[in-house]
Every structure is written in structure tokens, then in C-alpha cells.
Fold this protein.
Amino acid sequence: MCGIAGIALKSGEVGPIIYECLKRLEYRGYDSVGEAAVINGKIVVKKDKGKIDEVESKLKISSLPALVGIGHTRWATHGAPSAENAHPHTDCKGTVAVVHNGIIENFMQLRQELENTGHTFKSRTDSEVVAHLVEEYLKTENEFVDAVRKAVKRLIGAYALALISTTAPEQIICVRKESPLVLGTSKTGNYCASDIPAFLPMTNQIILLEDDELAVLTADRISIRRVDDGELIVREPFSVNWNVETAVKTGYAHFMLKEIHEQPASLRDAIRTHPIYMDLMALTLNKAKKIFLIACGTSYHASLAAAYLFANLARVQVTPVVASEFIDNYAALIDPDTVVLAISQSGETADTLSAVRSARDRGATILGISNSIGSTLTRLSDVYIGQNSGPEMGVAATKTFTAQVTVLTKIVLALARKRQALRTTELEALESGIAQLPDWISETLLQEETVKRIAEKYGENASFCYLGRGINVATALEGRLKLLELSYLPAIAYPAGESKHGFISVIEDGYPVVFVAPKDETHSKIIGNVMEMKARGAKIISIVDWDDEEIPKLSDEVIRLPPGIPAALSPAAYIVPLQFLAYYIAVRKGYDPDFPRNLAKSVTVH
Ligand code: F6R
């Protein structure tokens, strides 16, 4: 997730206004920043690694004496944070500058093709190919807009783009496909940005750009066309009555709620990881004699779900370990045949990093999954993959879990393919299931009101219990973690089968027990567990498949998930109602779910 902005003014200087827009987009990314404009017939780019204010005091990026310009605040996905990888990117001759939010899936092929025809690349980003492609098409097209249209037709992936060129210095061309981009219009100029808050102080007159549409912005005109055939589209502006603060949360009361709702989009980004990195990881894992998954908190729960998949899909045994326990328990086993796959949203969690460092010192190969490319974890890793879910502002991890379990599932499938552990039809069914997951999560989000009602009804209970079996023990543990960290309730989570070995003594009339119970191979056993709890007076809250007939009959509350979700992919969807439950119970209690007490987003102490 990055933030982009483009502004065409009738008078004044664009640099400081882009700078203000980028400040309001900083929540979308903050590892590097840049601005560009055409000044005296040349493209001038000011950019560097660092937060917006740091780069501003170093380079004065806001000083761009021009009427038209573009800007970008970055959250690295391809290429670590650095001055070269910061946007805007330019072509070889310096005729085009581009800012991009999204992921260009076929950038490697395009880059190879462009390098073969003599283009020289300056960065490791996927985005730079756009500048060179447009440069290439400017050789045959007279109009900047036609060159952009031709270039965009070559792109596969997700993109919100804004481009400027010395060939049409009064224009900004912006394009959208599956990444957010909105337009703003006013008497003094026109705007494009990833989000409305960027330009809200200048105008509340908004025009939406749809997928596969392109807009040409000048100071006094916005014209929208279809990318496909260039046909003009007439679209009227509408006004919004937001203030900047609510607009940053796009109308949601808290970042956490926004981030729960963002999951279909963040998952689409997570899924887009280039297959080459998956293959590289699978290759390394396939050679390993011992594999450990290490992580903390939510990332650890994602690794628990992954351990189940490694065993059941790739037929490989892996050991998931809480990072702080790793060295004390397993130091004696680590050697050069060991692979440690570390999972950390921040990439800076002290416990995870010290486990990684100790394993490295003993000769292990380190693989990393992180949301923060350029973080210490990615620098310590021999191979790393971005979970690509964008900045998470709520302290409680939400979109982190869904992105991590899905990226891990893709790694497992790459390994299963290499080891021929699954039939091709099984592999293909799971791969197409992953592609459908964002839609299933969108449908699951529709259960929000049902969960809110359950939170209202049971929110005063002193404790909750979460039970699951198989892969969804991980989901139950993660649901419990959300509730206890936000509502400060001493909640319990167990493998459902284990609950009768002690925990069941806690159950009394009215105690809420949440069952994560998709119709997988554990279904008949979990029915038994539901009955055990019900017989002792528990209130049963069940999360089940859309057509489950048995568990709902035993339940006091039922949350149904959409049809078709394969059991192996169930944690990413089944966690969503549990995120809502924790959120609404915390809000009901008057707590701020974005800032739970005693917790930090990144735990950098042991
Ligand atoms: C839970 C939560 C924490 C983190 C844990 C690991 O909502 O946010 O439990 O999951 O501190 O953090 P990362 O993944 O950054 O290593």
C-alpha cells in the first residue's frame, strides 16, 4: 500500500500542496517519499528514503516551482526502501515520470523485454517499467495519453498510476485498476490521489475513477476515457461532507474496523506475490532436514495454521515455535540443514529477531515473511516475501493474519507441487480457492450486524472460550487473542478435544463458548464437543458453513460463512467474525480498540 497524488493548478506552486497531500496519505506508507514536476522543459524529481518530514528537511521536496506535479509516499513491496526505489520513477531520457500504488505482476517479463531493447533501469521496483513502457510508446504515438493507454494495456496486476511528461507539461494522466484512485475538482485546480483526505482541504467535489479508466487532468479540465478503446466518459462530481480525521478512517469509527473491512483488498495484494519468490522458498524448504516456523502473537497463530498445511498438503513436518521459546527449546537441534521460516508483520519484533540471529549463527538458512520490506527481518533473511497488506494502524493485528495465512498457504502449495504431494486437480482447486478468498471474505463481512448483536448480548460476560479442531485451533487462538487484548477479558482457547481434560470444569450456566466449526474432517468430532459444552449450560456461539444443519440446532447463536470455502483456506475467512466480536465487545465496554492498554504495535524489547 502506497499513497499517490497529482495536482494541476491554475496559479501558485504545486510542490507545497503535493507535500500536504502526502502528509495526509502517510497512513498508507512511510518508508520513502518523492515529488516530481516539469520545470523549464525538464522533469525534476526530488525523492529519498525516510519519513516525509525527514526527507523534507533534507531535500526540501516541497519546493517545486511548477503548476503541475505528482507525489508518492511508499510502503515497499518490490525493492527495499532506498533513494533509487523511491517514486517518482523516470524513463531513460527523462521525458516521463510516474508514481504507482499496487503491484505489477508481469514486471519481470516487461523489464526483460525493455532491457533487450536498450532501456536502462535505475531501481528494483516493479513500477519503473511503466515509465520505460510509456517512453517506448512515445516513439510511435503523438499524444502522451495514447502512449500511456498503450503502455497500460501491457500491464497485468493492480495499479493506480499518475504520470507527467515533458511532451505534455500541462497534463497529469492517471489510471486505475484494482488500486484506489479518486479525482477532485475545484475552481483553482484539479487533483488525483489514492484517497479523498489527501485533497479534502482544497476541495470536497469528488469524481470517482473506475477500474480500467484513465483521466487526463489539466488545471481547468478533467476528461475521463476508457483504457480499452479510448472512448470518453462523462461523469459528474459529487460532494462529501467529511472532515480530514474521519476521512482518513474512510468513515469508520476506528482504524481496526477499517482494517477488518480492508481485508478483501489487502488479501488481493498479498496474493499477488510473484511466483518466483514462492518457488525459491519452496526449493529451500524442500532441501531442509529440519524446518521451524518462528513468530509471536498473531504471526505465531498464522504459523500454527501453516504447520497443519505443511503436514497435510505438502507432507512435510515443520515445528511452529513461539519465538521467545525457540532458543531455549531447540538450540541443540539447529545446524546448516535447518531452515527457519520467521513470520513478523513489523519485521522488528525483538524475540523473533533474536531467535533468527541465534539460528543464523548456528548455520541455519533464514526465510522471512514480513509486511515491512527493508525491516531487520528482511535484511537477516536469505529469502523473504512481503505479506503486502499495507500499514496496519490498529495495534491489534487483523489484516496481518489473513495475509500471512494466505501467503504461507501459497508457499505450502509451491512446496506440495515440487514434491508432487498433491494431485494436479487438488492443487488447482486450492489455487483457485485462494484467488476467490477475497470474495468470500467480502461476503463474510456481511455478517457484521449479526456479530454486533451477539457482542451486545454477551458483552457483559466475564470470560469467553474459543474452541476449534485441526487447522482451526489456530483460528480459535487468534480469536481469543483479539478479545483479550482489546477487552482485557481473561478469555480461553483450546483444541476442542482437549477441553474435556480440565477446562470443562470452568463451564457453568450462561458461559459463552465460541466454536470455529467448518464442515471439514473434524466436523463430527466437534459436534460431540458442542454437546459436551451444551450439556453443562454453556451458551454456544458457532461459526459454521452456510449449509451446516447439525451444529446450528445445538447453538444459541449462529454465524454462517459463504459456500465453497475449502477447509484448508478456512482460517482466513473464519477469523473475520471473531475480529468483529472482539472489536464490538471492546467498543461496548468503552475501550479504544485502536490503542489497547499496555500494548505496542511493534514489541522491540525482550
Ligand atoms: C496481536 C498483535 C501481536 C503481534 C506480535 C508479533 O494482535 O498485534 O500479538 O502479532 O507482537 O508482531 P509481529 O508480527 O510484528 O512480529
Q: What stands out?
A: The chain has 20 helices and 25 strands.
